Amino acid sequence: MALGALNKVTAYGVSEADAAAVRDLAAQQEAGARFAAFSAAAAWEVGTAIREAFLKNSSEAQGIIVTIELFTGHRLFSAAVGAPPAVGPDNWAWAAAKLNVVRRFGVSSLRKGRELAAQGRTPEAKGLHFPEYACHGGGFPIYLANNDTGPIGAIVVSGLPQLDDHQLIVDALASVPHLLA
């Protein structure tokens, strides 16, 4: 599986071509991260991998929240890592908004944000206002292999710059290849 790393680019003020490149890479990452099956045990393994990767590469001043939810409303994994003020209630609001983007569009919240930027548009111009929606990296769809009807849920990270939130999920998925089809 080739999930690929994002180059460090700023989320705002990038050219439409750069936004398109990030959008395309996010689409490739999503295509390479289809689960053979998904269960509470799989959510635990992915969530724990995200948490461990964050702890390995973070400073004490940083914090994230991780949530893995099915679109039935069932939350399978939830964790806050770090201490206030690095992590707090705002992170959960951002997570809910990123989850809404994945639920509505069936793609990562980073991909949707970069898709709009590549078109020279803002999320707000498309009616995607915070706190209901956040077209920022950190929401990743949970797709099952051989099922293109739509994702069954989302993996969400909030607390780092958006490209880092997204990449933390991608890196964790790459670390659990036995779960992917």
From TrEMBL:
Stored Pfam families: HbpS-like
SUPFAM superfamilies: GlcG-like
Family matches, as InterPro entries: PduO/GlcC-like, PduO/GlcC-like_sf, YBR137W-like
Protein name stated in the entry: Uncharacterized protein
Originating species: Vanrija albida
